[in-house]
User: Fold this.
Amino acid sequence: MHLVYPVVLAALLFSVGVYGVLARRNAILVLMSVELMLNAVNLNLVAFDAWLRDSLHAGQALTLFIITVAAAEIGLGLAIVLLVFRNRGTADIDRLTALGDPNEDAAEAAAEAAVPNDRAAA
Amino acid sequence: MNLALPALVPALPALGAAATLATGRRAPGFARPLAILPVAASAVLALVVALQLGGGQSLDAATRLTPTGGPAISLAIHLDGFSSLISLLVGLVATCVQVYSTAYLKDDPRYPSYAALVSLFTAAMFLVVYSGDLVVLLVGWEIMGICSYFLIGHHWESADARSASLKAFLVTKLGDIPFLFGILLLGSDAGTFRISGVLEAAAGGRLGHPTLIALLLLAGVAGKSAQFPLHTWLPDAMAGPTPVSALIHAATMVAAGIYLVARLLPVFLLSGAALLVLSVMAAVTMVGSALCALAQDDLKRVLAYSTVGQLGYMAGALASGDRDAAVFHLISHGAFKALLFLTAGVVIHAAHTNSISAMSRMPDLRRRVPDAYWTMGIALVALVGLPPFSGFFSKEAVLTAAEHAATGEAITNGLGPASAVPAAGGWIVLVSGAFTALLTAAYATRLWLVAFHAQATAAPAAPEPGQANGHAEGAPYSPEIDEAGTQLEPHAMRWPLWVLAVPTMGFGVAGLRPDWLPSLLDGGSLRPSTGTAVIGTALALAGILVAYAAWRSGTARAAAAARTVPAGQAAAGAAADPGRTLLGPLFGPAQHGFHVDRLYSALFVRPTTAAAQLVRFLDREVIETYVRGTGGGANLLGWLVRRAQNGNAQAYVSALLAGVVLLAVLVAVGT
Assistant:
């Protein structure tokens, strides 16, 4: 089998994953998209391993590692999403902005007061 | 000779000053002995040094202070007749002033710092007199300047005293900067800062730019000795306490410039142009200041202008090449002018005013202060220059020197050829000196008559119209009014007067015999020549008579006016002023020092202020705009970056992906 088939398939999978990470709102779907991206990488690893006829089969070994780590990661991620949903009542990524610049309106006001030359202070 | 003695002379008052400053606040009882004893001890030591040195001798000793790479600076002592005599004068006047101040500033809370500054000043003057090195001399010179600044501003509560001290400081500094350059140039030309080395270089013709050096030094001398373009600080300096005026602004500090020129006269003799400039400076100074003195109403300002004029005499003698006459006049003037200021302090204490026209309405003033009355009379006669008082001999020595210079046979006493002195300078000094003798006699007589000889017509209980008169605009704040003690003439204020009256009366004869005073100096004759003596005395007598006549006619007119208009005493007081009659239309300008201050204010002060305002504008509006702009720019950038941090993880990842794609494209295109 020519190498191009699995590679194109992996690229498509990865693109779907990227799209899902960037565009989906639900955190669980974002996690699933991350899994898609990981599996695209796995597919690449296996395809190249077969293509290069690596005697040690490092690609396959690495794939097994990635599957294990991905399983652990998805377990932790789902637990976090579950806890966030319990706390906030939502799992939408774009509503979970607590780590952003907190007081947007006050910050803007302060920034606008500081930008013009305040002669009164001088 | 033991070098410790002359070294102790400047050191003792300096140590006394330090001790007074250290203990003044905690133990004010020690302030008086600490003020008087070191200065008096220095005076005695100066006498001992002078006696040990003897006449005609000189002593030079030096230890090198530090290797400089250039001409070495050495801690040098130079003793000769000039320095001995002037150190005696300084010691005598400083001791009298310290004793007098104990009574004069009895209730002043700042007496310790005052006494310390006077002691420090005395030390600096001794240093200037004894120093054999120009740089060390400059140190003493500048210490005197700063002491003068502090002492003029002693009554710093009043705006007048503050501005007068600033003015004195700035104006003298204006002269000191060219002076510093002159010293540096002199040192580099001569290869040494030692005065003896400089004089050797001058004698050997090794000075490259004598005219430039002499003119630069003259600027400093004009500042310190209050000569014409830079004289304006001295009349205003009278805002300080009267003993300070006596010590600093009459007897000693202002004489430092004259002393310096006398020490370096061989350098000045190399440059006819500098001597001519000096003679013109002296002539303008003496005539102008005498006219101003004739118009002043403030007793101390009359004396201040008279000091300026007498310093003009000394400068004139130097311009004629005769430093013996200059130093002779310096010493006799130092004695009688210090006496005049000290008596003025007593009189002002008693009269509670500085204004002589206000004093003229106090008929019993001369009975209340008999000692001051008589000693001031003695000092005024010496100032006028009537024989046999000291002022006569010293002034005639100056005029004789000018006469010799005018006829081309200047008395240089071997310091240089007689032809080195321009005859034109001699004529200028001679003519202006003779005219000043007339004016001096007039203003001294006016001062004496107006201050002490009250008009019979003025009622003793007249309600002080003189307050308006005496404190006319331009008259300085007179702190003495607030300082008046209960006793009119305490002993500490009385006996210094008589101590100083002795040299005022008798010192002049020292110049008659060549083996008396001249043997201490360069050995030239100080005997007045017949022609100038007759002319000078006749002019002085004429001045006295004219002033007296003007005063009599003014008094008579005032009496007539008082009979017709009994309430017109203010007008009567003004009309009886002989200065107004004598000067006529010149009276107004002369009263304000010929508006030199206003001219300087228009020429220098206002442009400087305008430049300062321009700089302020540039600082505020231009430079600060840049500073604010950097702050504002950083804020703006920060604001932009904050906008990016919106908490949406997907936006972050999008930006990350965009960056990765960008990098990948760049790498792909780049390779």
